[in-house]
Amino acid sequence: AITNSTVIALASWLERFTYRRSHAVVVLSKDLQRNVRAKLSSRYASRIHVIENFVDTQRITPRDRMTAYRAELGIGSEVVVMYAGNVGFSQSLEHVLEFAERSPTVTVLINGDGAALQSLRALAADIANVRFGGYQPETRLAEVLATGDIHVVSLRAGLATVSVPSKTYSILAAGRPVVAAVDAGTEINGLLERAGAGLSVAPDDVEALCAALSSLAVDAPRRERLGANGRTYVERHVTARDVAEAYVRLLSDSLSNS
After folding, report:
1. Could you say which DSSP state residue 47 is in?
2. pLDDT value at residue 255
3. What pLDDT score was predicted for residue 1?
4. DSSP state string for 140-184
5. What 3-state DSSP class applies to 45?
6. DSSP 3-state helix, strand, coil percentages of the chain (rounded to 5)?
7. Which residues have a Cβ under 8 Å from the Cβ of 189 and sit 6 or more positions away?
8. Which residue in 89, 132, 169, 216 could disulfide with 55, CB within 3.0 to 4.6 Å?
9. Tell me: the pLDDT tens digits for 156-191?
10. Residue 207: what pLDDT?
11. What pairing do the DSSP bridges indicate for beta strands 107-113 and 130-133?
12. Number of Cα atoms under 13 Å in the Cβ half of residue 8
């Protein structure tokens, strides 16, 4: 968003200065680790550490798909494809509306708010199987996530290398499969592969996205299997305790080496 070259140069200098003065720098993915390391000389490479996001697996648990939230939005027992979170221009959510047009027996639920919401509402005005829901209290997070049978995580091409949508971990904790439209070889793509919890397609590829969503929409056993895989993964690898222990180890190492 910033175009002033002087401001950009100053911010870049401050960024590199901060990294060099730190004993350790923590990022959320190997993509971000590569990004930071590229800005520094090789002697600082060992300071850049990856510690994944965590999710509260006690607060977010798998629940029955027939939630009270469905009833509030006028949704029945049909399959629900959900996008939940920031409704911005970097998510390419118009492609999800294209899927809704092609799949009239599936409900598409856009749940959240953001800069692109009004334009999406306009695009969806004549699509009967699209619903919109607003942000809900945190106490309802598990219920909201359970409302979706399939969740979409999407980022425009090039953005997945500098962004790790933390909602992905919450979706896995809720025991729901993910269809991710993100750059290949990036963290969310890798997470789904490691967990066996969903499908990845190229960003901004509407045909691939529609095909992936359609394949899961008609295959309930596969959805259940992928959802269970995701839940198992977060229980074993990214609980609050796991991440806290990783920070304790890093702090101990940093203190002993300082």
Report:
1. G
2. 83
3. 73
4. GHHHHHHH-SEEEEE--TT-TTS---THHHHHHHTT--EEEE--T
5. helix
6. 50, 15, 35
7. 160, 180, 182, 183, 200
8. 169
9. 887 777 778 889 999 999 999 999 999 888 889 999
10. 96
11. parallel
12. 5
